[in-house]
Amino acid sequence: MSIVLWLFVTVAAYELGRWLRRRTHSPLAQPVAVAVVIVGALLALSGTTYDDYADATTLISFLLGPATVALAIPLYHQAARLKGMVVPVLFALTAGAVVSMVSGVLLVRWLGGGDVLERTMATKAVTAPVSIALTERLGGYPELSAAFAIVVGIVGAMVAPRLLTLLGIRDPRARGIAVGAVSHGIGTARMLEESRVEGAFSGLAMGLTAVVTCLLVPLVAYFLL
Amino acid sequence: MIVGLLWLLGCQLAGTAIVELTGIPLPGPVVGMLLLFLVLVLRRRGGEDDPIIQVGDYFLSHLQLFFIPAGVGVIAYLAVIRDAALPIVVALLGSWLLGLATVGWVLGLFLRRVPEVAGTQGAPGEEIE
Predict the structure, then answer these.
(1) Is A31 within the bounds of a domain?
(2) Which structural domain range is residue A25 located in?
(3) In a domain, A145, yes or no
(4) Structural domains counted in chain A
(5) Is the pLDDT at A167 greater than 70, yes or no?
(6) A36 and A144 assigned to the same domain
């Protein structure tokens, strides 16, 4: 009974979040954020522990696996655009991933956040399903890393286009790739509203960043953690 | 539908098996993603009627649903967030901004010499996550 109940509540909260996004068109109204708040409140009200909820919803979390595999599809659609820019894009994304991971870890360290938090901060620039899987391997808090990823996605959707203009970055390809590299899917959705070029390159950067980060994480862990 | 689902699960299974057998430090589903990319490139179909693309796009359009359980897990970490609010906020925003600027500037330097490829307009963009 509680399995069906929490499955129903989760899907219903998600649908409510989608309805809110359609109504408001606000980058703040991310269905996952809305659903987390609703489900979290209901868990607290009903006195259900997170472990019980997680057990009841394994059916949903399992689907993250095939969905992560499906990220190959946007990568495949957009691979043709990379003609003539494979090396610069891979170089820029590698540089960005290193800067993002190293600065995240070091900032947490300098401000006294502790070892587990450093491991949780490292992978927050990649799309949440990959961030969860990587943080599990690193020994951080997987759920918290997913929340970090969602937060930087929303921040990107809110301020990235204006910030890029302030930084003097005007080439639409560079703008799209920069946002996809640090704000993954949520940033990509926003860049699609700017222009299709920016959106497509952002989606491409999101997929490549996930791959590049996975390859770099062991190195960063070896030298820093 | 089922054929597409079989491909997704099959790639995840193969990816997980490769990770367990070789011990490479990557998540199984990410290796599965690389395998599916190879499959798509090698098959050269990729049309609207391709069952992999139909099922995959459906999964991706609801990607957010699948990490709600993980997201709810944050409530288990409210104490961690409260105790380390400053490092979390500064590191999150600081490293995000540094990463954004790095990618943008490095690419800006390179791309001055690369003209935009014809046909970059009007391609499908997926709204995922």
Answers:
(1) yes
(2) 2-62
(3) yes
(4) 2
(5) yes
(6) no
User: What are the tokens at A180?
Assistant: 């996809």
CB contact under 8 A, A196 and B121: yes
Instruction: Give the Cα separation of B47 and A195 in Å (integer).
Output: 24
Residues 105-124 of B with CB under 8 A from A: 105-108, 110-112, 114, 116-117, 120-124
Whether the per-residue pLDDT at B121 is higher than 90: the answer is no
Can you give the pLDDT at residue A71? 84
Q: Mean pLDDT across chain A, nearest whole number? A: 90
Domain shared by A54 and A154, yes or no? no
* Token code pair at residue B115: 């003209």
Q: Is residue A67 part of a domain?
A: no
Q: Residue B105's closest CA among A99, A130, A111, A103?
A: A99
Q: How many residues does chain B have?
A: 129
Q: How far is B34 from chain A (nearest CA, A)?
A: 7
Q: What is the mean pLDDT of residues A96-119?
A: 95
